[in-house]
Amino acid sequence: MTDAGYACDNVIEAVRDAHIVFLESNYDEAMLEEGFYPPFLKRRIAGNSGHLSNSHAASLILEHGSPELKHIFLSHLSENNNAPDIAMSTFQSVIESRKDLKNLNTLLTSRYEVSPLVRITV
C-alpha cells in the first residue's frame, strides 16, 4: 500500500487479515517540517491525499496488525524527507509494545537496489 494518505477502512481491513504487508513509510514528520519543500507541498504530502509518515505506518500496524503478520516491507521512503534508519527505528519503537509481533520480520525496500529474497510460508 503506497500513496495511502491515511488509513481508511479498506486499508485497516487489509492489515487486520494480512500475513505480509508492503506499506509506505514515506516521511519523517520533523524532516518534512524542517525540509526545503514549499508549504503547499508539505501540506499535500502530510494530508489525506498524500502519504503515510513513519509514525502513521507504525501506528497502523500497532493498532490493527494481525497477530498472524509475519513480514512487513516498509516502502516508498522519501529521498528528501526520510532516512532508512529513522523509518526503521520509528517503526520498531512504536510496535515494540505488541508482544505478539516480536518476531515480525521488518525489511526496508530501496529505490536503488533489489530487496532481499524472502521465503514466505503460511
Walk me through this protein's architecture.
It is a single chain. This protein is of the alpha/beta class and 122 residues long. The protein has a single domain (9-108), classed as Ribonuclease Z/Hydroxyacylglutathione hydrolase-like (Metallo-beta-lactamase, Chain A, 4-Layer Sandwich). It contains 5 helices and 3 strands; from the N terminus they run H-E-H-H-H-E-H-E. It has helices spanning 9-17, 29-34, 39-46, 54-64, 84-95, and strands at 20-24, 71-75, 105-108. It has a 3-stranded parallel sheet, with helices on one face. Helix 4 (54-64) runs parallel beside helix 5. The mean pLDDT is 95.
Order of SSEs:
HEHHHEHE
Q: CATH superfamily assignment? A: Ribonuclease Z/Hydroxyacylglutathione hydrolase-like
Please report which band the strand proportion falls in: under 5%, 5-15%, 15-25%, 25-35%, 35-45% or over 45%: 5-15%
Query: End-to-end distance, in Å?
Result: 21 Å
Which CATH C-level class is it?
Alpha Beta
Strand order of the largest sheet: 1-2-3
Give the overall pLDDT as a whole number: 95
User: How would the global form be characterised?
Assistant: globular
Question: Major beta sheet, specifics?
Answer: 3 strands, parallel
Task: State the helicity in percent bands.
Answer: 25-40%
Low-confidence stretches: none
CATH architecture: 4-Layer Sandwich
For this structure, the quaternary state is: single chain
- Assign the CATH topology: Metallo-beta-lactamase, Chain A
